[in-house]
Specification:
This protein has nine helices and five strands. The protein is α/β, with parallel strands linked by helices. The protein has a five-stranded mixed β-sheet. Helix 3 links the parallel strand 1 and strand 2. It is globular and about 55 Å long. 26% of the residues are buried. The chain binds cobalt (II) ion (CO).
Length: 218
């Protein structure tokens, strides 16, 4: 088999040298710890790398990626990332960034069986069901998929707000904004979907959790 991966080591050496040329202290500074302002929840799609498309450097964005940028409240991986980002790193912004042409979203619109991944896609299908009057009314399939991508992102913004992690931060007056964005792989531009949550008022009351009572010391 061709050892195509060897070029990654070469690229890496050149990249590290380039960073040092630009800023001799670059790695020393990063070695001291991270304090990113952003948590990025994006799609695993290789065409949507968080740092590159936002022009940010290592150290600036805490990243979680999965198929179709989902916030599934039983996903221990996502919850652990969210908890660490909000409670320890105290990020100020959480960005859910979907992308047009998302294979996961397109697959969820159809009825084909793909195997194990169908269990993941079902969460995306739920989003379709919540919004089927709007989505079914869009005759053009590409346009319907684009809207589905947007609605899926917006639902994930809601799903973040539903977590006790985010609500406890808000209830403690920790500044934390949640944003819903969509990236277009055709032109490289990110669109703000305007679904920004800044506090409990943005979340339907049925999801509100009472403020955590302080621990009683004995
Ligand atoms: Co995708």
């Amino acid at each position: 088999m061709e050892k195509s991966y060897l070029k990654l080591f070469e690229n890496n050496k050149a990249w590290a040298q380039n960073q040092i040329n630009k800023n001799p202290d670059f790695f020393n500074q990063l070695a001291n710890g991270q304090s990113p302002e952003y948590l990025w929840i994006g799609c695993s799609d290789s065409r949507v790398p968080a740092n590159e498309i936002t022009g940010t450097l290592p150290g600036e964005i805490f990243v979680h990626r999965n198929i179709a940028n989902m916030v599934v409240h039983s996903d221990m991986n996502m919850l652990s990332v969210l908890s660490y980002a909000v409670e320890i790193l105290k990020v100020k912004h959480i960005i859910v960034c979907g992308h047009y042409g998302c294979g996961g979203v397109i697959a969820a619109m159809g009825n084909k069986q793909y195997g194990l991944i169908d269990n993941w896609l079902r969460h995306i299908k739920d989003v379709y069901r919540y919004h089927y009057p709007e989505l079914d009314s869009i005759a053009d399939e590409t346009q319907r998929a684009r809207r589905f991508v947007e609605l899926n992102v917006i639902e994930q913004v809601h799903d973040l707000g539903k977590t006790s992690i985010v609500q406890n931060a808000w209830n403690n007056n920790q500044p934390l904004h949640i944003h819903g964005w969509a990236y277009d792989i055709k032109d490289g531009i990110i669109k703000d979907l305007g679904a920004t949550f800044t506090g409990m008022q943005d979340l339907h009351a049925v999801y509100h959790l009472d403020k955590q009572s302080p621990t009683v010391e004995k």
